[in-house]
Amino acid sequence: FPFFLDALYDYTKGNFTVTGPNATALIFSTYPAPSVSLLGGFFTEFTATVMLLLGILVIHDEKNNEALKGTQALLTGILVLGIGVGMGMNTGYDINPSRDLPPRIFTAIAGWGIDVFTAGHYWWWIPVTAPILGSLAGVLIHKLFIDLHNQSVPDSGNEKGEPEVQTS
């Protein structure tokens, strides 16, 4: 790992910056595109996380014709790729607070300083709060519009799915 910081040190000539043409802090954490406002960034992260949770819940929903066994990981990867391609240029599609906050703390300690928390008009709180609220909203939407309306398939005990006739 020290060789990586040495390469960064050589690239920046010892001047670790958060913004500008030679900014390297964005290697570790997400920062908004210059044209993205705080509200726009919050909405992007919130929406991306709602889409992620809805997709994962649908992929694994046994009551709603779940995905074939063994394909869930592939489908989840395709889902994350789709979210990244569709929304990644705005904010780096953080969609998970643990993907942004610990690396941001690391960069603050490793030489980038407090600028990692003040850059982008104090952007740091967006990748922490928007995914949490987006995940709650995604689960709520799934529960209200999908899960509550599906009934479990009862086990009939026979393989053909025909109703059993009970005799006395």
From TrEMBL:
<dbReference type="GO" id="GO:0016323">
    <property type="term" value="C:basolateral plasma membrane"/>
</dbReference>
<dbReference type="InterPro" id="IPR000425">
    <property type="entry name" value="MIP"/>
</dbReference>
<dbReference type="GO" id="GO:0015254">
    <property type="term" value="F:glycerol channel activity"/>
</dbReference>
<dbReference type="InterPro" id="IPR050363">
    <property type="entry name" value="MIP/Aquaporin"/>
</dbReference>
<comment type="similarity">
    <text>Belongs to the MIP/aquaporin (TC 1.A.8) family.</text>
</comment>
<dbReference type="InterPro" id="IPR023271">
    <property type="entry name" value="Aquaporin-like"/>
</dbReference>
<keyword id="KW-0813">Transport</keyword>
<keyword id="KW-1133">Transmembrane helix</keyword>
<keyword id="KW-0812">Transmembrane</keyword>
<dbReference type="Pfam" id="PF00230">
    <property type="entry name" value="MIP"/>
</dbReference>
<feature type="transmembrane region" description="Helical">
    <location>
        <begin position="71"/>
        <end position="93"/>
    </location>
</feature>
<dbReference type="GO" id="GO:0015250">
    <property type="term" value="F:water channel activity"/>
</dbReference>
<protein>
    <submittedName>
        <fullName>AQP3 protein</fullName>
    </submittedName>
</protein>
<feature type="transmembrane region" description="Helical">
    <location>
        <begin position="122"/>
        <end position="141"/>
    </location>
</feature>
<keyword id="KW-0472">Membrane</keyword>
<dbReference type="GO" id="GO:0015204">
    <property type="term" value="F:urea transmembrane transporter activity"/>
</dbReference>
<feature type="transmembrane region" description="Helical">
    <location>
        <begin position="38"/>
        <end position="59"/>
    </location>
</feature>
